[in-house]
Automatic annotation (TrEMBL):
GO terms for molecular function: metal ion binding. Residues 1-121 form the eRF1/Pelota-like N-terminal domain. It comes from Mytilus galloprovincialis (Mediterranean mussel). This is Protein pelota homolog. Its cofactor is a divalent metal cation. The lineage of its organism: Eukaryota, Metazoa, Spiralia, Lophotrochozoa, Mollusca. Its main location: cytoplasm.
């Protein structure tokens, strides 16, 4: 008989839903309030259907997370007596902001406990915003410690400049700029955000910033004029979201972004690639190779994607937990990358696990591996 140990959690902001998604696993128990349709029959034989709010406890079978809406849906069978729902009946619980739920696990491993500590840390904020743009295309993003949230994508056709006919081009550009400004005003909370990056090729960013602050003075948008010092202009190769990685690598931004997790992830991945190029025997990636390095107590910094810990294969998850625990026991540093950051996506292409080593390990084993 398994004994499930439970914790009660209350998600207060969208990122908390991401933490919940990384905590809930198949086989766990989940208790929360929910709405259930109940069919009742009166003495006269008429049937009515009513919605009732009740508390259910299910054993988790499937988990679905909507990254845009930050909605977590968990489906499973009811495992506690309930006047409205039979034992063993399927139900889907929608985990919502500011609504308490209890999560039970047979075993709380170190990664799950660290995740709870991280979620409860009040210093973790979405303190960075970015506008990645080129003429006719812009992405407005919020960068939290664990997620890059696309809050607005603005795409519009701007007529080309023609000799003696610039009015249409200027009108199109103004409309494009206005849409970006509205997206910034709508999605950036300047009480929390410490820095807003405006990135583009060429002078697009400069022209936009000049227009935005001219309009801010004209329209008396104090929220923009009072926070002008938070805006930083930086080069990017394009207006596409993937350009965010190169933007965060810009050395001139380091003082502004020193405390953000997004930058520490990018920096760690950059150090790994530098090691791979300059001293390949001190860089390792792939589960088998990293496991060997852990056994030799060689891992200085472990880079691992949170995606691996969401594996529904219990043995695979335990394998990754063992790697993390082994590195910590030997005094190494563990960096868990969010798969919703650009750097996390890039680490995923390297099987999701890599390591910078204390000393060289020559590995002749190039066998293909099964990654999970």
């Amino acid at each position: 008989m398994f004994v499930f140990r439970s914790v009660e959690l209350v998600p207060e902001e969208p990122e908390d839903m991401w933490h919940a998604y990384n905590l809930v696993a198949v086989g766990d128990t989940l208790r929360s309030t929910t709405i259930r349709k109940v069919q009742t029959e009166s003495a006269t034989g008429s049937v009515s259907v009513n919605k009732v709010r009740t508390t259910l406890c299910i054993q988790v079978e499937t988990i679905d997370f909507d990254t845009q809406g930050c909605v977590l849906r968990v489906k499973g069978r009811n495992i506690q007596e309930n006047q409205y729902v039979k034992m063993g009946a399927y139900h889907t619980l929608d985990l919502e902001l500011n609504r308490k739920f209890a999560l039970g696990k047979h075993e709380w491993d170190s990664v799950a406990l660290d995740r709870i500590d991280m979620a409860c840390d009040p210093t973790q904020h979405a303190d960075l915003a970015a506008v990645i743009m080129q003429e006719g295309l812009a992405h407005v993003c919020l960068i939290t410690p664990n997620m890059t949230l696309l809050r607005a994508k603005i795409e519009t056709t701007i007529p080309r400049k023609r000799k003696g006919m610039c009015a249409q081009h200027d009108k199109g550009l103004t409309k494009f700029y206005d849409q970006i400004i509205q997206a910034v005003l709508r999605h950036v909370n300047f009480d929390i955000v410490k820095c807003v990056l405006i990135a583009s090729p060429g002078f697009v960013k400069d022209q936009f910033a000049e227009y935005m602050f001219t309009m801010a003075v004209k329209m008396d948008w104090k929220i923009l004029t009072d926070n002008k010092s938070k805006f930083v202009l930086v080069h990017s190769s394009s207006g596409f979201k993937h350009s965010l990685k190169e933007v965060l690598q810009d050395p001139s931004l380091a003082p502004k972004l020193a405390d953000t997790k997004a930058l520490t992830e990018v920096k760690a991945l950059d150090e790994f690639y530098q090691m791979l190029m300059n001293d390949a025997d001190r860089a390792s990636y792939g589960v088998k190779h990293v496991e060997k390095a852990v056994d030799l107590q060689a891992v200085e910094v472990l880079l691992i994607s949170d995606e691996l810990f969401r594996s529904q294969d219990v043995q695979k998850r335990k394998r990754y937990i063992k790697i993390v625990d082994g590195v910590k026991e030997n005094g190494g540093e563990v960096r868990i990358f969010s798969s919703l950051h650009v750097s996390g996506e890039q680490l995923g292409q390297l099987s999701g696990v890599a390591a910078i080593l204390r000393f060289p390990i020559h590995d002749d084993d190039d066998d293909s591996e099964e990654e999970g």
